[in-house]
Design goal:
mainly alpha; 16 helices; 70% helix
Length: 335
């Protein structure tokens, strides 16, 4: 952290000591929270209680969004292409609610599940249906990844073989029908088209801009508090990246939606490599150094997607929620 502050003040874009130090702390919230959780006494019990509280909080918010949508701002503001309101819950964000549900499903399947495989599969399908109501495409994919890991573990334990091709076909049918009904598939196609024709998919714009900055300030980027972060508003880096003048820049919304873009833009390829190493070391520590291939692939996919499509390391909510599940699943798996 000290190195990023010194580099930014000497060679970076933002020269405000307060902004640079504050943003450096904000950008490292995920690591700080994870390390604090790992110091807890009776860590498995403590994290389990926290997750139960989060479960009640999330389910109450979900039901309120369904029953009283006019009182839940996030649900009434954001809509599917088909016109239905996206469910935002007490997180007041459909995406945050979706991420929470996908991690809860993973924790249930990978740690809490003790009974019938069929019952667990039906619960997984129900959870995925709830995630579809949030409209979060990333969460939908991540929940399926968690379920497939659960299937792999379950059938490995009872020495049966299953065709993952047919499993994927069976699972994809109801998921595809639900996703299509709520316009999620149309949304994916529209976002892809927006990136290709340059019409304004903000994540794509930010990632492209981050590559420009990382080359201009190779290999350490434009420095803290300069691009894609909370304290970067007004930074000249946005002009260099071709983002200034867009409605996203003017309203300062959506520019934080890719942690990959903010890391690459502010800290370059060197910062990107360091963050990958830090995340890998944290995951190993959460698993007490004994992580299986299945769980390794699971977390690799989770972090790869979330870093690309969310501010996982900077968001106050995600910087607490994700470490909570990482520590809980890791410590229970390594017992």
């Amino acid at each position: 952290m000290l190195g990023s502050v010194v580099y930014t003040l000497l060679l970076g874009v933002n020269k405000s000591i307060f902004s640079v130090i504050s943003q450096t702390l904000i950008s490292n919230k995920f690591y700080i929270v994870t390390l604090v959780l790992l110091t807890l006494v009776n860590i498995e019990d403590m994290t389990k209680r926290m997750i139960y509280i989060l479960f009640v909080f999330t389910m109450v918010g979900f039901m309120l969004s369904i029953l009283l949508p006019d009182l839940m701002q996030a649900s009434s503001k954001e809509r599917f292409i088909s016109g239905f309101s996206r469910v935002g819950g007490l997180q007041y964000s459909p995406n945050l609610l979706g991420y929470t549900l996908s991690f809860m499903l993973a924790a249930y399947l990978l740690v809490e599940y003790k009974g019938s495989f069929l019952v667990a599969s039906l619960i997984a399908l129900l959870a995925i249906a709830l995630i579809i109501l949030t409209g979060s495409r990333t969460s939908l994919f991540l929940s399926v990844v968690g379920y497939l890991l659960f299937v792999w573990k379950s059938f490995a334990l009872i020495n049966k073989r299953i065709s993952f091709f047919w499993l994927a076909v069976i699972m994809s049918m109801p998921i595809t029908l639900l996703a299509g009904a709520f316009g999620i598939l149309d949304g994916i196609l529209i976002n892809i088209y927006s990136v290709e024709n340059g019409s304004g998919y903000i994540r794509g714009m930010m990632i492209a801009g981050a590559f420009s900055l990382s080359m201009a300030y190779f290999p350490f980027g434009s420095g803290a508090a300069s691009f894609g972060t909370a304290l970067s508003q007004g930074s000249v880096a946005y002009s260099m990246a071709g983002i200034s003048g867009t409605r996203f820049y003017n309203d300062f919304v959506g520019v934080f939606d890719s942690n990959f873009a903010s890391i690459l833009g502010e800290f370059g390829f060197a910062g990107l490599v360091l963050n990958v190493v830090f995340i890998y070391l944290l995951i190993k520590k959460c698993y007490s150094g004994k992580i299986s291939a299945g769980h390794g692939v699971f977390w690799f996919i989770q972090f790869s997607l979330l870093v690309m499509t969310s501010p996982i390391l900077m968001s106050s909510y995600m910087a607490v929620m994700v470490p909570l599940f990482l520590v809980y699943i890791g410590k229970n798996e390594s017992r």
